[in-house]
């Protein structure tokens, strides 16, 4: 049985706010990522279990200008094969959450489209792939305890990848018994002599 992957259960807060300035002539409001809320640390082999697939949206507050929505049921997992992506994040001056979100209709909740998170990640590589796919990606700072948690994972899995790979024996430099560089010949032996040597008797 494989060991469970480290993961964090999180919720995401999205905020609808008015636009000020010249841009307000074309658009009155915009959606922004406000915060990623840490729920609890979990360890699951399959994040579709433990309720992570049960995503829910809840209106936290609303006035004439602003709305704040809490979206729960998300999971940020760590994969050993993406250790470099976490390394690139945690070694910056401002490690962060990366959130991909889209505008979606919420039947039965509101008559207007709202910004809804799709995925949450700690990987710089994930964020890059999402941006390459023309998705909307925003980031907010990681809390100190998550930075420590992520760094521990990076120290365990990324450092080992940086170690110099063992050179295969077939690529080692050949040396003679005196430690000097040696070479071999692919020519066939003639007269029982050594490869590349003088086969004539003295």
Can you describe this structure?
The protein is an alpha+beta fold. The chain has one domain (5-162). The protein is 18% helix and 35% strand. It is built from 3 helices and 7 strands, in the order E-E-E-E-H-E-E-H-E-H. It has helices at residues 83-90, 124-132, 144-162, and strands at residues 5-18, 29-44, 56-62, 67-77, 96-104, 114-121, 136-141. The strands form 2 sheets. The protein has a 4-stranded antiparallel beta sheet, with no helix packed on it. It is elongated, with a radius of gyration of 29 Å.
In short:
The chain is α+β, with helices and mostly antiparallel strands. Helices cover 18% and strands 35% of the residues.
Total helix count? Answer: 3
Residue fraction in strands: 35-45%
In round numbers, the mean pLDDT is 79
- How far apart are the first and last residues' alpha carbons, in Å? 69 Å
Helical residue percent band: 10-25%
Structural class: alpha+beta
How many separate structural domains? 1
The secondary-structure element order is: EEEEHEEHEH
Quick tags:
single chain, 202 residues, alpha+beta, four-stranded antiparallel beta sheet, three-stranded antiparallel beta sheet, 3 helices, elongated, disordered C terminus
């Amino acid at each position: 049985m494989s060991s469970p992957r480290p993961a964090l259960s999180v919720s995401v807060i999205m905020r609808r706010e008015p636009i000020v300035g010249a841009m307000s002539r074309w658009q009155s409001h915009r959606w922004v990522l406000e915060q990623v809320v840490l729920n609890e640390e979990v360890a699951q082999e399959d994040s579709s279990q433990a309720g992570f697939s049960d995503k829910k949206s809840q209106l936290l507050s609303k006035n004439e200008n602003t709305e704040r929505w809490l979206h729960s049921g998300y999971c940020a997992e760590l994969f050993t094969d993406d250790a470099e992506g976490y390394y690139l994040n945690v070694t910056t001056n401002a490690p962060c959450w990366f959130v991909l979100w889209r505008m979606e209709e919420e039947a039965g909740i509101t008559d207007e489209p709202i910004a809804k998170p799709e995925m949450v990640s700690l990987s710089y590589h994930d964020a890059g792939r999402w941006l390459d796919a023309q998705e909307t990606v925003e980031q907010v700072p990681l809390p100190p305890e998550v930075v420590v948690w992520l760094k521990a994972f990076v120290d365990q899995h990324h450092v080992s990848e940086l170690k110099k790979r063992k050179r295969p024996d077939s690529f080692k430099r050949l040396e003679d018994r005196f430690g000097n560089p040696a070479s071999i010949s692919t020519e066939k032996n003639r007269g029982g002599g050594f490869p590349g040597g003088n086969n004539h008797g003295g």
